């Protein structure tokens, strides 16, 4: 479904993603692991088109700071130069790092905004699904999103992108800053999404809570691919094991 | 900008103190409505795209001149002239965004310098083109006047109050209860999150500029008939709008309304008891005082904006 081919992203002269090639197949749950500044967010933002948007913005202002090389393909079609909006239209939706939401809007309005590109009946359907997945959001539907707790904001951030009806859901460190209980709750939700045949590509620093869910995983360091393989292969690799699984 | 009428009986000193109080009460409200209607376009654009459009005064006056040309040179009837003026102002807003603002998007200072320069450019162009004499004025929509508690108020001023309230309500509804309005506000809050659910940021910002300009044009067509079209009006409008937005805290309709009323009464009172020339002093004093004592405005709150994908 998603193919990343020889992707390189430079900020100024610093290489954030180095010659990365990877693939996510339809229906798969794929993880990508790496420590701080490994290039996870850069990769996710590049797949979603946000890095390209930033690059164009900076070029309009007269700067040339970001360089993107390589190819991105979705369903066999080249999307390297597509605008973020067109990628969302195709079903590539990113839930960004640190659970961003529209803080001044209510929970319900946030979900409606998430479904901005979708038809009304589809949005209704997805909102019902989100409320089923996260019942506590339903209770707070008319509350301002900025007033929710961190955990609820993370649920809303996920609800927001689910309302956009992704076919490929990209997630950048969804577990960041959550308590173990909340992490479990979220893992449960992710499992459910995966069972619903949603294709998920997820980045995390710490792989352990995600491990039971993934079909395959990649490990990157300084933007470079270190190892890849099935969940079991990753756990069996001693270096990876100590660095990303805390075992 | 001073929009209260010449007082009956000439000098203020001749009026009884009761009549003066009623005048202040009524004209405070009128001034408040004028100030609100004038500022709505600015506040709309800012609330929906975060652009502080300092070309406001220029656009206000340009719209007045356009309407004047359509009415007097081309001889169009009032309604078509008004609609065409608003459409042209809207197109200018979208054009300014696509041609210039897009390049400096997100750099608040550059955005302000660009719009400020455009505003001054328009005003000085109009001065050069000869819109400086006192021959230019727009027709009132309804002639005649009404006496309320011994104070004469003409229908046009009442109309300004009505239209001001109506537009404020409509805009509030638009930005809080329509899909496009919500999307635009979402954009203003967090551009990258809006982008990641499929809201196109350039389109949204261009639309908010166009809408803001259309409302400014409408305000000009409603308010300019109360006085003359002169270049100074453009500069005065800019000071007024800055005073309102700083006092009202930039993006809430309630703050805007409150600020307009406060400034409306302050200018009416100083105008009646002292001298209309104090109007600008009131605006400038409001700006300085609010920035010194309560920089986020009377009802405002601080927003921290970070930029990182
Ligand atoms: N907008 C930017 N401008 C300049 N450098 C950037 C930018 N975004 C990221 N970088 C740099 O690119 C490298 C990779 O950053 P990235 O955010 O992709 O890492 P990450 O794996 O997501 O890290 P974390 O786990 O801390 O979120 C870092 O060295 C970072 O400093
Ligand atoms: Mg990151």
Q: In words, what does this structure look like?
A:
The complex is a heterodimer of chains A (247) and B (309). Chain A has ten helices and ten strands. Chain A has 247 residues and is of the alpha/beta class. In chain A, strand 1 and strand 2 (14-24) form a beta hairpin. Chain A has a domain at 100-164. Chain B has a domain at 20-232. In chain B, helix 5 (155-177) runs antiparallel to helix 8, helix 9 (231-248) packs across helix 10 and helix 10 packs across helix 11. Chain B is globular. Chain B starts with 16 loop residues before the first helix and ends in a 16-residue tail after the last helix. Residues 6-14 and 302-309 of chain B have low confidence and may be disordered. The chains are: A alpha/beta (247), B mainly alpha (309). At the A-B interface, helix 1, helix 2, helix 3, strand 6 and helix 4 of A face helix 6 and helix 7 of B. Adenosine-5'-triphosphate binds at residues 11, 16, 34, 36-42, 97, 205 of chain A.
Assembly type of the chains comes to heterodimer
Encode the helix/strand succession of chain A as letters. EEEHHEEHEHHHHEHEEEHH
Q: Which overall shape of chain A is indicated by the principal axes computed on the Cα atoms?
A: globular
Strand adjacency order, main sheet of chain A: 6-7-8-3-9-10
Q: Helices and strands of chain A: which structural class? A: alpha/beta
Judged by helices, strands and strand pairing, the structural class of chain B is: mainly alpha
The total count of helices of chain A amounts to 10
């Amino acid at each position: 479904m998603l193919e990343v081919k020889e992707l390189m992203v430079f900020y100024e002269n610093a290489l954030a993603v180095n010659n990365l090639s990877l693939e996510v197949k339809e229906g798969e749950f794929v993880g990508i692991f790496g420590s701080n500044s490994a290039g996870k967010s850069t990769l996710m933002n590049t797949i979603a088109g946000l890095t390209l948007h930033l690059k164009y913005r900076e070029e309009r202002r007269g700067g040339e700071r970001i360089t993107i090389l390589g190819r991105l393909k979705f369903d066999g079609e080249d999307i390297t130069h597509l605008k973020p909006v067109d990628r969302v239209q195709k079903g590539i939706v990113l839930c960004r790092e640190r659970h961003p939401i529209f803080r001044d809007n209510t929970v319900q309005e946030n979900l409606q905004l998430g479904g901005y590109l979708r038809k009304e009946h589809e949005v209704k359907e997805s909102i019902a699904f989100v409320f089923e997945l996260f019942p506590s959001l339903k209770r707070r539907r008319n509350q301002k999103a900025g007033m929710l707790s961190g955990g609820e904001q993370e649920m809303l951030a996920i609800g927001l992108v689910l309302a956009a009806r992704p076919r490929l859901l990209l997630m950048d460190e969804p577990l960041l800053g959550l308590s173990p209980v909340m992490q479990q709750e979220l893992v449960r939700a992710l499992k459910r999404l995966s069972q619903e045949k949603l294709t998920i590509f997820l980045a995390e620093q710490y792989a352990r809570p995600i491990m039971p869910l993934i079909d395959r995983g990649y490990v990157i360091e300084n933007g470079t691919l270190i190892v890849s393989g099935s969940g079991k292969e990753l756990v069996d690799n001693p270096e990876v094991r100590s660095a990303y699984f805390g075992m | 900008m001073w929009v209260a009428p010449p007082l009956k009986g000439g000098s203020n000193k001749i009026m009884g103190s009761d009549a003066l109080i009623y005048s202040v009460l009524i004209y405070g409200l009128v001034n408040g409505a004028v100030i609100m209607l004038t500022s709505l376009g600015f506040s709309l654009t800012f609330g929906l795209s975060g652009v502080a459009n300092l070309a406001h005064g220029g656009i206000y006056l340009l719209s007045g001149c356009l309407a004047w040309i359509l009415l007097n040179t081309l001889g169009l009837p009032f309604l078509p002239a008004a609609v065409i003026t608003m459409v042209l102002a809207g197109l200018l807003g979208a054009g300014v965004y696509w041609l210039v603002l897009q390049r400096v998007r997100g750099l608040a200072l550059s955005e302000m310098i660009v719009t400020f320069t455009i505003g001054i450019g328009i005003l000085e162009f109009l001065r050069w083109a000869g819109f400086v004499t006192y021959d230019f004025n727009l027709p009132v929509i309804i002639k005649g006047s009404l006496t309320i508690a011994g104070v004469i108020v003409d229908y046009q001023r009442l109309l300004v109050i009505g239209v001001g309230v109506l537009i404020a309500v409509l805009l509030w509804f638009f930005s809080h209860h329509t899909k496009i309005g919500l999307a635009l506000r979402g954009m203003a809050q967090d551009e990258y999150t809006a982008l990641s659910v499929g809201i196109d940021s350039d389109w949204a910002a261009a639309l908010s500029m166009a809408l803001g300009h259309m409302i400014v044009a409408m305000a000009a067509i409603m308010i300019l008939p109360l006085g003359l079209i002169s270049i100074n009006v453009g500069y005065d409008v800019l000071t007024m709008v800055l005073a309102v937005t700083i006092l009202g805290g930039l993006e809430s309709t309630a703050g805007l309304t409150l600020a307009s009323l406060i400034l409306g009464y302050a200018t009416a009172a100083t105008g009646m008891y002292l001298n209309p020339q104090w109007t600008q002093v009131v605006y400038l004093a409001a700006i300085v005082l609010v920035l010194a004592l309560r920089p986020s405005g009377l009802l405002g709150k601080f927003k921290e904006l970070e930029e990182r994908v």
